[in-house]
Amino acid sequence: MAPYYGPDASPNEIFLERTFVAADFIGGFGYGIQCVLYLSCAIFLCKKRRSRGRQSTFLLAYMTFLLVIQTILSAVQARTVQDIYIDNRNYPGGPWAYFLATQNLPINVMFYATLFLVTFLADLLILWRCWVIWNAAGQLIACIVLAFPVLLLLGSFVMGTLWTLQSSQPGLSLYSKLPMAYGTTYYVISLSVNIILTILISIRLFMYRRRILVTLPVEHAKQYASLATIFIESAALYSMFALIFIISYAVNNPINQVFLAVTSSAQQISGYLIIYRIAQGTAWSGTGILEGKLPTLQFASNAQNPGDTSITTGPIDIYQAPKAPLTPI
Questions:
Q1: What stretches of 168-307 show up as alpha helix (H) in DSSP?
Q2: Which of 107, 173, 191, 233 is most buried, judging by how many CB atoms fall within 10 Å of its CB?
Q3: C-beta separation of 170 from 104 below 8 A
Q4: CA angle 198-199-202, nearest 5°?
């Protein structure tokens, strides 16, 4: 039997440290995807800045701020792994004991603060998209529909602030009893907000899907009313992974660290995909007019040979009156 050279720690603690390192890798991978999506969105938005005006400027500023915060979060994660497993590997009790005993260090406070901030900013984007989509039915209806999600979002902000403050106290951590209570409550509220907004957006888009399939041929309507479109616009990707994370976090399973990294990346990626559709001009808005370019067939006669009729293609402007309340922007 080969000699054991592993750490003097329980199997559960070893598994916890493995998931900690794995989460850092997944977070870095997700950050790379976000950088690519940021560049793609920024290029589209810069090209259409003159035609879009304030919206493009606002989205560029939002994305840039979000990427800066995410960059700080990724750097803090990498520095924390170095601090735990390289700089203080011989701390009494092992690396994990050192991590739990040093939660009040600036680097750990920055981790919790940036994690909370990127989550809250992503929640605001989904709330804004829900407002845009429901606003086509009237501002009063949109206000009534979004009143409860807004209250939940304010509640998540309060609980997230308490979670961040408690997790960074000396002797406490993300996995201590009180911070875990705040953290579970925060993520349950945040997840509830996203699930509600996902359902509201999906319901509204399914309603528009039925109407637009009547207005346009199926092959042209796919771009605006496909199930993939509804999946992206409603940020269902984040809600799916967030549900898995909150279950594993509530039962205190170490695998929750992996799902935390996946959930955080999925949330930001969902936001970038929505912004990408906006930048492309294929996202939904509440203008009440359907405009677009569809390829059509035109018959043209040959001037030199009048008897020869050929078929050529060309774009035609499509205009549909307020029958279809939402349009790609």
A1: 177-215, 218-225, 227-233, 236-250, 256-280
A2: 233
A3: yes
A4: 85
Question: Which tens digits make up the pLDDT trace of 215-261?
Answer: 766 665 555 556 666 677 667 788 888 888 888 877 888 888 898 88
Query: Helix or strand or coil: residue 299?
Result: strand
Paired tokens of 261: 């990294």
- CA 263, CA 255: separation in Å to the nearest integer? 12
Please identify which residue in the block is written with the tokens 């989550």. 119
CA distance 181 to 185: 6
Q: How far apart are CA 38 and CA 2, in angstroms?
A: 49
pTM of the model: 0.75
- In this structure, the number of other CB atoms found within 10 A of the CB of residue 2 comes to 4
Put residue 283 in one of left, alpha, beta given phi > 0 → left and psi -120 to 50 → alpha: beta
- Tokens 């790609």 belong to which residue? 328
Per-residue pLDDT at 182: 79
SS3 per-residue string spanning 16-58? HHHHHHHHHHHHHHHHHHHHHHHHHHHHHHHHCHHHHCHHHHH
Q: Which residue has the tokens 């579970």?
A: 184
User: Rounded CA gap, 135 and 143, in Å?
Assistant: 8
Give just the sign of the alpha carbon dihedral 183, 189, 192, 194: negative
Task: Dump strand ranges (E) for the chain.
Answer: 284-285, 290-301, 309-320, 327-328
- Residues 195 and 79: their CA atoms lie apart, in Å, by 33
